[in-house]
Design a protein that fits this description.
- Two copies of one chain form a homodimer.
- By secondary structure, chain A is α/β, with parallel strands linked by helices.
- The first copy, chain A, contains seven helices and nine strands, in the order E-H-E-E-E-H-E-E-H-E-H-E-H-H-E-H.
- Chain A has helices at residues 19-29, 59-67, 86-94, 105-114, 128-138, 143-157, 172-187, and strands at residues 8-12, 33-35, 38-40, 54-56, 71-77, 80-85, 98-102, 119-124, 165-168.
- In chain A, the strands form two sheets. In chain A, strands 2-7-1-8-9 form a five-stranded parallel sheet, sandwiched between helices.
- In chain A, helix 5 packs antiparallel against helix 6.
- At the A-B interface, strand 8, helix 6, strand 9 and helix 7 of A face strand 8, helix 6, strand 9 and helix 7 of B.
Chain lengths: 200, 200
């Protein structure tokens, strides 16, 4: 009997590394993936749907959830609260689905501390020069912003060893296949099995 | 830059679980595998080639190797010494090849203790009833031997949680793909990368 519980996969890494692209490709490779949806107190933007882009909450609702320990991680940015509600994640895991949490490094550290069963993956650019080239290629940020992002990326790279896996996104297809393998392997971890001869 | 060092993969589990078949299939799935060759003091049998089936050693040579710490594990069975020489394994790993060590549980425990970088996989039968049916299907062992093997299997199953991964060999193709994923994931482990921002 194969284990049926899904794996919680944390994917973090510097902005511009291509997390969204790699994760999207893995979703095409396997049908058992779900992407975690965050909760936020910020107002919905035109076209955003509650429960799809975000779970939209009032500050009071959000703070009640914090008090109830309902978040895998949360943080405040420019006056708004953002967090990952544990409930939908655990429902998917129990249903045998793997849940991908694309998250910045501070949030990743919170989830790792709370969920030792999670698999953690740091997605790295092939080099800082390549990261700079990708950020400039977007054409959406000015020079000062790009330099600030590169400084942040240096600090994030120093945290990579705290993740179980490091995947270098040199080629999207290779990186996606590696992440796919990490998920498949994650489902085979012995932690999912009972002790003793009653394994089977 | 992707890590180029190979992974040492320990594969153990009860006799009759299909280790050889699964490992053989993984060798077809990926070109970067090598199978570890054991050393032994027993005499070569007709058709056996030194360095292919075994490294054939005199007892004196073998004991000198033990004294030099040249084995990843070794043991004595019915008057002959058997062991896994570390040298050829490490040469393959340095060349970027993954090395599969198909080994019984006592040897596996020795390798795990000496090589914390190894990935350990316990290959389990889908059930003891199925294992019994496979052992009887071989038609090579009498009833008493089969019952002894099943008793041994029960004891081995109790050790499964000491491995990093448990793969249930219900279907050879599925088990081989899971082992393949475990190897690919093993190459992405953060332990292979240096500390700090000089990751890249």
């Amino acid at each position: 009997m194969t284990n049926k519980k899904g794996v919680l996969v944390i994917v973090s890494g510097p902005a511009g590394t291509g997390k969204g692209t790699v994760i999207g490709r893995v979703g095409e490779l396997r049908g058992d993936l779900r992407y975690s949806v965050s909760a936020t107190t910020r107002a919905p933007r035109p076209g955003e749907t509650d429960g799809v882009n975000y779970y939209f909450k009032t500050r009071e609702e959000f703070e009640t959830m914090i008090g109830a320990g309902a978040f895998l991680e949360y943080a405040e940015y420019v006056g708004n609260l953002y967090g990952t509600p544990a409930g939908p994640v655990d429902e998917s895991l129990s249903a045998g689905l793997n849940v991908i949490l694309e998250i910045e490094v501070q949030g990743a550290a919170q989830v790792m501390a709370r969920r030792p069963d999670a698999v953690s993956v740091f997605l790295a650019p092939p080099s800082l020069a390549e990261l700079e080239s990708r950020l400039r290629g977007r054409g959406t940020e000015d020079d000062a912003t790009i330099r600030r992002r590169l400084d942040t990326a240096r600090g994030e790279l120093a945290l990579a060893k705290g993740y179980q896996y490091i995947i270098v996104n040199d080629d999207v297809e290779t990186a996606a296949r590696e992440l796919d393998a990490v998920i498949t392997a994650g489902r085979c971890r012995s932690m999912y099995y009972p002790e003793g001869e009653n394994l089977l």
